[in-house]
Amino acid sequence: MTARYLAVRALMHQERDGYSNLVLDAELKKCSPLLSRRDAAFAASIFYTTLERQRLIDCCLDRFTRKPVAKLDAPVRAILRTGLAQAKFLDVPLPAAVNESVKLAKAFGKTSAAGMVNAVLRRAAAFDWETLEFAEPVERLAVRYSLSDEVAALLYRDYGDEAFAIAEAFYCRGDTFIRVNTLKTQDDALAEILRGEGCEVRPGPWPHCLAVKFPASPAAAKAFAEGLFHVQGLASQFAAQCVAAQPGERVLDLCAAPGGKSLTLAEAMNNEGNLVSADAVKSRLPLIEQAFDRCGVTCGAVRHGDASQYDEALGTFDRVLCDVPCSGLGVIGKKPDIRFKTLENLSSLVALQQKILQNAARYLAQNGRLVYSTCTINVNENEDQVRTFCEANPQFRVVTPEFVPQGAQVGEWGTLFLPHKTASDGFFTAILERV
Known about the structure:
The chain is an alpha/beta fold. 45% of the residues lie in helices and 16% in strands.
């Protein structure tokens, strides 16, 4: 078993079913006794790089194969894709990428295709894909950045030529950002502990936020097991901070799983008051409970509930956060499956988001604050939703955040994070208060 063999097998599995992260985790678990940590990391790198560049890779391969790559046998297709991904994006010398791919063809019982794999990879690797010509900008965006036609069309509709910079930013790999658990430690103390575990640490853009380079998974850190921090992206931290939760208040997180924002809210509350963290997916509630237990949160109660349906028994709250289900177009860099979305259910998703936002307002106390957020950059799910809400509820107004990170765009209907400007996930947050 080699890293390359595992990557090819995982890609074949992923084509049949499942989310990429779950597929890869399953394959790694099968082979964990046979692979070193370094080889497992290399397998993951090949797997994700191939997925993230798949349309561009296929476009180049198709120029040198007798029939489209999509119609080749599954093992041969995956071997060609991973071979070209290594040569063009992972700095693997071409001879090594080709020779190892030929070996894989034989290992998967495709000896008759070995010569073709050799010839196609050598020719495709020499091809300059910057010379590719496209009939229109949306086609270029889709192929060059490996997006579905629907995703590319939506991004170009909303952002025009800026969509190319956004799509390029999805490939950027920055530091991991974490939130310091102020219920157990402080920024400087945690930074020293993490450095002692072999991490590189620097301060984030606001208090209790650290940028960290971990030697392995953040969850493998002893400080994580002790509940001294949780992993949370900058934009997600910003949304939770916009709630401005205070000790002693009643706070509702309507779409809480897996619990990152709820943890930040509990810390802002200093574990004093009443935090209700609800989610419609019952199987995800243990994730919130485990996060609370690990981080020492005692002011939080986990509840199963549909955010679009009013529950009178919950009562009223000083602060309400609804981080609604969305298309996820802001986190394409973390979730490659989103690249290939068809967006066929987008209209029903938009309707659900508005229903959740309208329902959230019913829980709000007279002088309370309501925060709406998404991890998408689709105008229909963001600015349009807040505009629609305010038109139906003229007693509400959009409030400017107390602090705006560098690069974030504050507009009439909320604050937008675009990845090429904020070096973060794409995200949208709107603060709403009664006039």
